[in-house]
Structure formats: C-alpha cells, structure tokens
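RECORD TYPE: inverse folding
INPUT: structure tokens
STRUCTURE:
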C-alpha cells in the first residue's frame, strides 16, 4: 500500500485529494493544525476510514514538520497544499502569509533533504496568481488572444503571490540542486461546493442559496423583491421597505471586471496526483483555457434560479477592492494534456450550476 502525506488536508483541495487517494488504496496521513474550532468538516465522512490518519502539526513550525516526516519517511508522495490562500487577506496579514505560504514549503523541502527522502515525491501547490499582471499574446489571422503557460514570466501582484513564487522557485531548486523528485502544479482558480465561503464564486452561490431559502420562509417570490433602504443600507425586500423583517442584505462584492479561468477542484486534484506518477518531476499549468468575468459568473448563477436581473441584488463595495488586482487569467495547459493526458471534465456553466444547486440544498 502506498503512503501519502497531505499538508492542508482540511482545505477544499485537501479533501478532494483525500477522496481520490483513498479510492486508489493509499494510506493517507493528513496534517491538521490545532485551532479552537473543528476544521475537519470537509473530510468528516472519511474520518472513520482506517486508511486515513491525522497528525497534528503546523507548516510554519519546522520542528513539527520534521517530526511528522521522520515518522513517515516511507511516504511515496508528499503534497503541500497548506497555505494562507486568500489573496485579499494576504494584504492585511503579509508576514503571516509569508510564513505559511512561502516559508512553510521550504520547511518541508529542507526536512526531506535532512531525512534523505530521495524516494519520496513532492507536490507544491503553485498558483496562476504568480503571473500577476503578466500574460503572453498569441496572434492569429484575425484576432489576438492573451494566455499564460509554463513559460510566461511571473510578475506577482500580492503578498500571497510573492510567497507562492518563492515556494515555486524553492521547489525547483530542491529538484535541481538536491535531486529531490519535486513537481509544481501552476493551478488556475478551481472551485466547487467545498470552496471557502469568502472566495468570490462561493460567496455568490452561498448568497443565492441563503436568499432563496429566506424568500421561501417569508413567502416572497425571489424575483418580486425590490431594492430599498438608503444607499448605505442596501437591502432587498419583499413588498415593503419599512418592515425590517422583510429585508435581506444585498450581496456586497468588489471588482466585477476581473477575468478568471475557473475550473472544478475535483478535476484539478486528479492532475496533482498525475504529476507525481511521472518518472521525471516537472512543472505544469492546470486550467480550462476559458476565461470569464465575475459579471458572467453572476449572470449564470442568478439566471440558474430564474433571476435574470442579478444587478438588482448586488452592490459594489470598495471594501472588497484590493490594493493591486490581477485583471486577466486564462491558462494554456497543452503541456499537461500532452504529457499527463489530463483534461478538465467540467465546463464553466456546469461548475456554476453545480455550486448553486449545492447551496440551495
Ligand atoms: P484552502 O481551502 O484555503 O486550504 C488551505 C489549507 O491549508 C487548509 O487545510 C488549512 O488548514 C491549511 N493551513 C493553513 N495554514 C496552515 C499552517 N500554518 N499549517 C498547516 N496547515 C495550514 O485552499 P485550497 O483552495 O484547498 O487550495 C489548496 C492549495 O492550492 C493552497 O496552497 C492554495 O494556495 C493553492 N491554490 C489554490 C487554488 C484555488 O483556486 N483553489 C489555485 C491555485 C493554488 P485549516 O483548515 O486549519 O485552515
Ligand atoms: O475568488 P477570489 O478571492 O480568488 P483569487 O484572488 O483569484 O485567488 C484564488 O485563486 C488563485 C489562483 O489564481 C489562488 F492561488 C488563490 O489561493 C485563490 O484560491 O477572487 C477572484 C476575483 C478577484 O479579481 C477579486 O478581486 O474576484 C474579485 N472579487 C470581487 N468581489 C472578489 C469579491 N473576491 C472576493 N474574494 N470577494 C469579493 O467580494
């Protein structure tokens, strides 16, 4: 039986990867950190599985990282998915983000060298956020298209992205300098029903689910509500604006014009595993090749529940603007398609509807 260690097992991707590895008959060692609430909700159905074991540790604590690896030096695969992964939060907590998202990766790599874990394969969760404001341009006969691939230069635009770039280059250095089998997946945004509630996609679908449930309890037709209150209050309401019990806060969002290449998280975790099955370690872009704005996401999400005028329910709040923004992401994953045989299985529209349906239930 192969053993895999997952740092970040309680996150969106950690839970999908655990599903996949247990299905493939792996023994999975998941690293969880001590916090004051239970963080295992995404893997709660797996906790009884005899092939899953949780170890307590924190990626910023080199001592705990080396102890975990020492106890599991026979691991065939080590996945580093742990991160402070919210870009906006990284502007408010840059040092913490650096310690977790940047230095945490180094703690694992150095422990692997110190323990001479040359037989173990390592995966680093790199990010399309590393491209920042940069893209390449493909010039066709009649049009031009912008994209990012493995050769596009990184111009990071956030403390998160800078920390991810450092971890990415460390991953490459430990491959070339120490002969470790280290691969990095440059993953574009990937979402699904397990996505954290403060990322834009889930924030939207969660709001829709909550609003529809609220309308149902109040006996209001969702499309009948009206905007009410002062500009600052910004509620939608059924029938009357005066009755506070019939007011529901609007969905407050930041930049609606950003383009993202959004895929389904389950598909992307399969690509992580595929990378570590290759004899040669390497870096791969994982994406859908399609890009959409936040506005397009809103349009499909709201219309999937029969609400065709999404702008009635949304207010733009500068609180959600970032000091620097990544305007355009659209990946080219030709290398992963060719070398790994990987392809995304879910379309953008499927993904949006899957998330809305899940939040309605
Ligand atoms: P996520 O849901 O935010 O999960 C992050 C995980 O890291 C959680 O398990 C979290 O544990 C853990 N963690 C945070 N700080 C830690 C620490 N000090 N020590 C140990 N564990 C710690 O992120 P995700 O969406 O699953 O993404 C997985 C990885 O891929 C992340 O590295 C992210 O930056 C990267 N990535 C994500 C995307 C995307 O679109 N989802 C795209 C590119 C790259 P708690 O549960 O205790 O908080
Ligand atoms: O959902 P987001 O917060 O994702 P973002 O910043 O693209 O980062 C995610 O994808 C990266 C891969 O490129 C990962 F590395 C990273 O860990 C994370 O998973 O924001 C998407 C877009 C941004 O342009 C943001 O400004 O949506 C815009 N946005 C508009 N209103 C909002 C909001 N984002 C959030 N989180 N909340 C809003 O209210």
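DESIGNED SEQUENCE:
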């Amino acid at each position: 039986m192969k053993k895999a260690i997952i740092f970040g097992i309680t996150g969106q991707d950690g839970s999908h990867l655990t599903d996949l590895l247990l299905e493939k008959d792996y023994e999975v060692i998941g690293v969880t950190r001590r916090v004051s609430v239970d963080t295992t909700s995404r893997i709660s159905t797996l906790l009884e599985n005899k092939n899953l074991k949780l170890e307590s540790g924190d990626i910023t604590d080199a001592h705990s990282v080396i102890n975990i690896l020492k106890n599991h030096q026979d691991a065939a695969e080590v996945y580093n998915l742990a991160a402070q992964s919210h870009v906006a939060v990284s502007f408010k907590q840059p040092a913490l983000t650096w310690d977790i998202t940047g230095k945490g990766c180094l703690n694992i790599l150095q422990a692997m060298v110190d323990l001479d874990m040359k037989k173990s394969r390592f995966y680093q969760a790199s990010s399309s956020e590393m491209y920042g404001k940069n893209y390449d341009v493909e010039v066709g006969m009649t049009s031009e298209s912008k994209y990012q691939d493995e050769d596009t230069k990184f111009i990071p635009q956030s403390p998160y992205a800078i920390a991810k770039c450092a971890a990415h280059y460390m991953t490459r250095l430990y491959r070339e300098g120490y002969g470790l089998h280290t691969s990095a997946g440059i993953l574009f945004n990937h979402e699904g029903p397990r996505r954290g509630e403060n990322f834009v996609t889930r924030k939207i679908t969660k709001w829709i689910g909550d609003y529809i449930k609220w309308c149902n309890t109040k006996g209001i037709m969702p499309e009948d509500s009206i905007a009410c209150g002062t500009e600052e209050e910004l509620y939608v309401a059924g029938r009357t604006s005066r009755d506070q019990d019939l007011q529901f806060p609007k969905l407050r969002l930041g930049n609606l014009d950003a383009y993202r290449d959004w895929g389904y998280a389950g598909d992307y975790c399969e690509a992580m595993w595929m990378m570590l099955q290759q004899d040669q370690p390497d870096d791969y872009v994982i994406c859908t090749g399609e890009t959409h704005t936040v506005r397009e996401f809103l349009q499909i999400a709201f219309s999937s529940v029969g609400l065709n005028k999404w702008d009635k329910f949304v207010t733009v709040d500068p609180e959600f603007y970032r000091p620097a923004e990544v305007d355009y992401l659209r990946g080219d994953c030709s290398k992963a398609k060719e070398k790994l045989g990987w392809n995304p299985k879910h379309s953008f529209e499927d993904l949006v509807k899957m998330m809305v349906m899940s939040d309605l239930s």
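NOTES: The chain has a mean pLDDT of 94.
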